[in-house]
Amino acid sequence: MTAKIIDGKALAAKLKVDMQVEIISLAQKYGRAPGLAVVIVGNDPASHVYVKNKKIACEQVGIKSFSYALPAETTQEHILGLVAELNQNPLVDGILVQFPVPEHISEKRILNAIAVDKDVDGFHPYNIGCLAARQPELRSCTPYGCLKLIESTGIKLHGKEAVVVGASNNVGRPMALELLLAGATVTVAHRFTNNLKSHVERADIVVAAAGKQGLIQGEWIKQGAIVIDVGIHRLEDGSLTGDVDFDSASKRAGWITPVPGGVGPMTITMLLGNTVTAFKKHVGVVT
Ligand code: NAD
Q1: Atom 9 of ligand 1 has which residue's CA nearest to it?
Q2: DSSP string, 42-73
């Protein structure tokens, strides 16, 4: 079997076109475009690239972005003050603080200070709790993007065995909640899981988010399974690869995401989508 490619880039592009049309009509009706505030602290080059890409994506769909690039020595109090200000700013629908932040700043405190209705990353414990309680509000971007990729195959999730490899707050855990909400039977594997292979082998859906290059071997994959690779690793030659051994896995999987061009473009698109959702709440289109 040779797997069909789940093209995240193409799906993201389609969703962005639809979003652009919707934003034009919302902006006309409500007199302003959705606004996203992006805060970055320090000089981490990768984070600056991510932030730049997010701003470009905002421009593409008509979301207004507000940028706050702060020096590495910025105090926690200063950032909390800025977040409090943005929470009150009526032109700002979403607030994104790019992580990681320098070590003297508590990510948890910053995250918990963001107004829940502006938490467009979907990382706040309130929004994770809403997803757990089957009342999703702003959904974590990467897991929600993965769900959209899985849904794009047309395969129904009810009763399927799903294995999520990785249990982080931002990816693995909300991914498991998304799959559970969609009707799958979910196993979450993490660094203390024994015999990872035995779990992956029975999965109809594998979401690999361990941050370990090539961890998931092709021979572990069940024939016909859907394989979603969240991992991103830059190789010495500058190319990108994931947590799944793509060449061997694509011989057994039914569907597979590439790296790059799979999950990454969907993550940014879900961020834009969350900003539009937050805007609609703020202007009263939805309650
Ligand atoms: P993390 O380091 O916070 O969490 C990794 C998780 O994997 C942990 O729960 C850990 O217990 C588990 N793990 C580690 N080794 C394991 C092993 N051998 N077997 C099973 N589980 C293991 O990482 P994260 O933030 O969740 O990100 C994971 C990967 O996804 C990284 O490569 C990251 O760069 C990538 N990522 C990609 C996107 C995207 O848009 N494509 C978004 C977020 C993260």
Answers
A1: 167
A2: S--HHHHHHHHHHHHHHHHHT-EEEEEEE-TT
- 174 falls in which pLDDT band (50, 70, 90)? very high
DSSP 209-245: -S--TT-B-GGGSPTT-EEEE---EE-TTS-EE-SB-
Task: Return the SS3 of 76.
Answer: helix
C-alpha of residue 163 to centroid of ligand 1, in Å: 14
Residues 6+ apart with CB under 8 A from 229: 208, 216, 242, 243, 244, 246, 256, 257, 258, 259, 262, 263
Quickly state the pLDDT bin for 181 (edges 50, 70, 90): very high
Torsions phi, psi of 249, nearest 5?
-65, -35
Nearest protein CA to atom 5 of ligand 1, as residue: 210
Cβ of 215 closer than 6 Å to ligand 1, yes or no, is yes
Does residue 268 contact residue 246 with C-beta atoms inside 8 Å?
no
Triad 180, 185, 186: Cα angle to 5°: 70
The neighbouring-strand residues paired with 130 are none
Active site residues: 54, 98, 121
Region 168-175: mean pLDDT is 98
* Amino acid at the residue 242: G
Identify the pLDDT of residue 286.
81
The residue to mutate among 6, 9, 142, 171, having the most atoms of ligand 1 within 8 angstroms of its beta carbon, is 171
Ligand 1 centroid to Cα of residue 231, in Å, is 7
